[in-house]
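Hi Y.,

Following your request, here is the sequence exactly as I used it, all 226 residues.
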Amino acid sequence: MSCNRINKKKMIVDPDRPLPPELAKEYWETSAKLILEKFFPKRFFDLSIEDEKPDSRNKTTGVEVTSAEDKESQEMDSLYSRQYAYGSSEQREKALKRIEELGGRAEKYCLVHPGRSRDLGKIYCAVKIKTKKLNTSYDVFPRNYLFVYDSCLILDQELPEILSVISDSSADYEIKFDSIFLYCFGGDLYEFDLRNNTYTHINDSSKIVQQLVIDARNLINKKYKE
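Below is the corresponding structure, written out as tokens. Let me know if you'd prefer a different format.
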């Protein structure tokens, strides 16, 4: 068990406030675990999250979890979950000003991101970076998967091109992810199967995924309760 994990065990979460930044990574990994185990139970089961690379695993499967969100969105998330949620009055004021400069809006229980231009390129970039790490620094399993979060809503007519670009970006690497899963905030879940060169739109998955994300927060609340 790592020192980071030991320190986190001592944390106490207030269920009525944003999660402490130290738990953000575990929260999104937990969400991905619940989503995969719900929609693909034959492939994903008993996944553990232990601060390793890849992020979650069982005896035969490894899953890396990442975000393709742009730097501005990540900066707003950091400001909201740190200075705005837990800082002094002065820190909250500065955080709020910067969030508004970035086009966002901070409310009591949530951060509202601005609408941004669609950019599939950041998804491709995230996949390429993680594929490189799969070949250099991650543990490799019989089956390896990548789960990507993004806010870029996808059109069905774009799916063939997305699959083609993702596949081409992995062509030079000896080890490839078996599938790339993409969840678009406010949209549905998608799978790009690189082994079989197919794609799947999990229709009407949005409401189920939104509930699973809530379930993940409840699990974190329970784990780090007083």
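Residues 1-6 have pLDDT under 50 and may be disordered.

Thanks again,
Q.
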